[in-house]
Amino acid sequence: MAILPNPEIDDIDQRMLEALAGDARMSLKELAQAAGLSSPSAAERLRRLQERGVITAFTIDVDPAALGYPLQAIVRIRPLPGQLHVVERLIKETPQFVECDKVTGDDCFIARLVVPSMGELDAILDRIVEKAETNTSMIKASPVKRRLPPLGRV
Question: Which range marks the domain in which residue 34 is found?
Fold first, then answer.
C-alpha cells in the first residue's frame, strides 16, 4: 500500500472517490459495491468525506460546444495598477468566464473563457483591456480533463 498525502484517506475512501469521479450520480448501492461495503457503511463513509471537506460537491460535466460555445480560450490577465479588485469583479460578473484562478507571477489571473464566436471574445476582452493587460490562447484540445489528484495507488 502506498503512503497517501492525507493519511485519513484509506483504500476504501480511495475506491469510493474513484467511483464517484467516474459517475457522481451512481446509486448508494453501486457505490457500496465499488467500495466493498454495505450500503449503510458506504453512506456513513460518504457523510464523513463530506464533513471533512474531501467531497465538496456532486456536479455534472457539460460540453460547452453542445451549448453553443464552440470556442474556448485561456486568458492570462494582469490588472493595471489599482485595478485588481475591479478586474476580479469584471471576471466574476462575466458568465463566459467558466473558471478563474488567482495566481502568483507576472499575471494575477488565469481564466478559461467560452464563447460562440471570435466577435464575442473580442467584445469581452475589450471590456477588460481598459483595466488590464491580457494574453489569450485559444484551446485546440484538452488532452487531460479535470481529474482527481493522485490518491496513492501505484
Answer: 11-51
